[in-house]
Write a structure and sequence with these properties.
The protein has one domain. The protein contains 10 helices and no strands. The protein has helices at 8-22, 26-33, 49-53, 58-82, 85-100, 113-123, 125-142, 145-163, 169-182, 184-192. It starts with 7 loop residues before the first helix and ends in a 9-residue tail after the last helix.
């Protein structure tokens, strides 16, 4: 854990701001702007880039991925610049929770993978890059987005221990557990061999 320098009021503020940033449902926004329909009625009903890709629009999926990652990164970078590392980690966790449980969508959001990668790129670029590469390698071999996310999340804690001073180890462990929790249904389908592959409608 980082040294706690910020006041309780400051940490609450950055938790709230991080949550609000994370809760912006860019997948829904992009789909609506590009005339792709309601994501809730497409594929898995998820608001993330993988489900946007099921519309067949790769540009929309790419934009969703970038925006969802960026909101996590922005939450971290702004909190760090204005308050410190403790606030940055609070904002990171809050942004992830905001994506998964957005107030604008009745607290029914996405799985948080892009936001997870974006906030790690901002928290420590070495861990972020390692997680992104892990995702890419697993996705390239097995073509299953959820499996790539699960492996990247599991490896993130290892990357933190190998590449950093471990100040973000507790946060990393919490995020990993949350990713696995959000993917519980995917894990069941992976075990059953019924999990759809990337690009599959």
């Amino acid at each position: 854990m980082p040294i706690i320098d910020s006041s309780t009021d400051q940490l609450i503020l950055w938790a709230a701001l991080g949550y609000l940033m994370g809760s912006i449902p860019f997948g829904m926004v992009v789909a609506k702007v590009m005339g792709l329909g309601n994501l809730r009625n497409i594929g898995s009903g998820n608001i993330g880039a993988t489900n946007v890709l099921r519309t067949g629009n790769k540009a929309a999926a790419a934009l969703t991925l970038v925006f969802d990652a960026a909101k996590g990164a922005v939450a971290v970078l702004v909190a760090r610049a204005m308050a410190g590392e403790d606030a940055a980690q609070i904002a990171a966790l809050a942004a992830f929770l905001g994506h998964c449980f957005p107030i604008w969508l009745g607290f029914k959001g996405g799985k948080g993978v892009a936001t997870f990668l974006g906030l790690w790129l901002a928290l420590d670029w070495r861990v972020g890059v390692a997680c992104c590469l892990t995702w890419l390698v697993v996705a390239a071999i097995w073509r299953i987005s959820s499996l790539a996310a699960l492996v990247a999340a599991a490896m993130s804690t290892i990357w933190v221990m190998v590449l950093t001073d471990t100040r973000s180890l507790v946060l990393g462990a919490i995020l990993t557990l949350l990713v696995y929790w959000r993917h519980s249904a995917n894990i069941a389908r992976i075990r059953a061999g019924t999990e759809p592959k990337i690009g599959q409608s």
